[in-house]
Structures are given as structure tokens and as C-alpha cells.
Amino acid sequence: MRPMACMLHHVNLSRAVAHSINGESVLTGIFKKPVDGPVAVRMLGLEGDEQADPSVHGGLSKAVYAYPMEHYPFWQTVRAQAKVAGWDDTLHPGALGENLGITGLVESDAFIGDVLRFPDYELAISEPRFPCFKFNAAMGFNQAAKLMAQNAWCGFYLAVRVPGTLQAGQAFELVPGPREVGIQELFRSKMSRARSQ
After folding, report:
1. Which site in 18, 62, 105, 132 is 20 to 30 Å from 181, CA atoms measured?
2. What pTM value is reported for the model?
3. 46-53 own/partner pairs: CB under 8 Å, 24+ apart
4. What is the CATH number for 74?
């Protein structure tokens, strides 16, 4: 497989804040907003970004969350179908809780251990993202997590191999790892086990 050129389109950050979900106050960092300019990439994540629940987000193996923008049209359509957005409404960057909005690399082509090599930093794919009730809140309707599970359009977490500075508009190269465990394969396996319990 030849190295693939891909693109980072937007960088999104949020602080962990209390948000009302299903009538309860819940601490969350899912409501991310795009930022302009350079952002420091540290071993535990992006400077200025926070995770509310370190048992499922953050840490060395889940420092950064990337999501393929190729799926944005689908989410815009289903939100309109669910009547939580208009048909012409554009889904804003960071709407899926992602730090990085990327193109050129989707889950079916992503494997644990693959490396995203940027100009002065490197990120390694570590695991898929598993949706929870907070994802439903971010999308605005209760079937969002189920739809993510059905399509296995989960995005993926990244570990920081080489810290540096990132910025929207940067190209990156996909450097294949062992390519033994795919993101979609792992996601579907874990979701199937969770449903059977």
C-alpha cells in the first residue's frame, strides 16, 4: 500500500462544562467548537481541550479524536429527518465531538497502529470511539448513537507519538502500521458484545 495524502480541515476544542441532558446536569466536553491558528499537541491531548470522563475519553491512548468529514452529509440528512435541523442547515465543525475533522481517511481504511504523519508531529490510531448518550445530545436526537453503531462511522482515537503544533489546512500522510486490526472490525466486535450482554 502506498502512503496516502490526507487533509486536516478543522481543529475543535472545548472545556468540560455542565450541560442539561435528559433533564440532568452532566459534565461533558463533547460540544466542541472550531479554532483558528496553531494549537499545541501534547501527549495528553490538545492545549485548551478537556474531557469530562477520563474513564472513556482522554489519556495517552485517547488523547485526540478524529472524525472523517466524508460522513457529515449523512449526519446533516438524518438530523433533518429527525426534525432537529433544517434540510439546508450545515453541520458545524466539531459537531460530532471531534478534535480533528479530516478527509481522505475513513474507518474502513484505518487500522490500529497506523500513523498520521504531519509536518512536525505524529499521531497513531489507537481505537474506535464508542458513542454514548452524550452523542445523542450533541446530535439532538435519541437514535444518533444507534445509527453510528449500525454504520460503524465512529471515527478513531489517536495517541500522540511525536508532540508538536497542528493547524487546520495541514496535509498528513498515512503511514501503515501492522494492519492486523481494523477500526471498523474492532468497533463492530465490541458493539456486538455489548448488545449481547
Report:
1. 132
2. 0.94
3. 46/11, 46/13, 46/99, 46/166, 48/13, 48/15, 49/13, 49/14, 49/15, 49/99, 50/14, 50/15, 50/16, 51/16, 52/16, 52/26, 52/27, 52/28, 53/27, 53/28
4. 2.40.33.20
Please, are residues 49 and 62 in contact by the beta-carbon 8 Å criterion? no
* Tens of each residue's pLDDT in the chain, 197 residues: 444 569 999 999 999 999 998 899 999 999 999 999 999 999 999 999 998 877 777 899 999 999 999 999 999 999 999 999 999 999 999 999 999 999 999 999 999 999 999 999 999 999 999 998 999 999 999 999 999 999 999 999 999 999 999 999 999 999 999 999 999 999 999 998 877 66
Nine cell digits for residue 172: 498528513
Q: What is the domain range of residue 181?
A: 4-196
> Count of alpha carbons within 13 Å of 25, Cβ hemisphere only?
3
